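Sequence in, structure out. Go.
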Amino acid sequence: MDELTGVPHWDRASWPRTTERLTLRPAVDADAEAMFAYRSLPEVARWMTWQPPDLESWLAAFDKRRPYTATVLLGDELIGDLYLKTENAWSQTEVRDQAKDVSAEIGWCLAPEHEGRGYATEAVRDLLSFVFDGLGLRRVHAECFAVNEPSWRLMERLGMRREAHTVKDALHRDGRWYDGLTYALLAEEWRT
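Output:
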């Protein structure tokens, strides 16, 4: 982990990483506008934790987001991004040092014109490979609104298990409370 809390060691992998159709690499400042182009779309922002009101606001906040972000490229086109933040596991005081940066929260976002082709599955699968094989973490988790079926279906395709279905615990910007889902995967599950 870097000096920033939860920032993964992107340098533990050779970049760019390539999959069958995609290229992944840590985000750079020059990616900000391309990411804003799809993240600001209502159909995308609907499920994101923040809907940037304008490009200026997005650019102002990008420095805080960038260290946790990898980009997904199809050829030279930025079509999505991945989120990775390492975390300490809950532990008792006597073993707290053994629980430092052993888990991570992951997330993803894909431009809508590239949905339905398996790109998100391919990209997140490679992110999981980096998390478990590159960083040596023991557990990952991801969360979504229960009504965001494409997101939880992706988690299930990747072998993640549903660990929690919470009832109306997540306040949406539309003013309604929604159920939430938490999925997780252990390193030993990933390797089998």
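Check: The domain at 10-191 is CATH 3.40.630.30 (Aminopeptidase). The first helix runs from residue 32 to 39.
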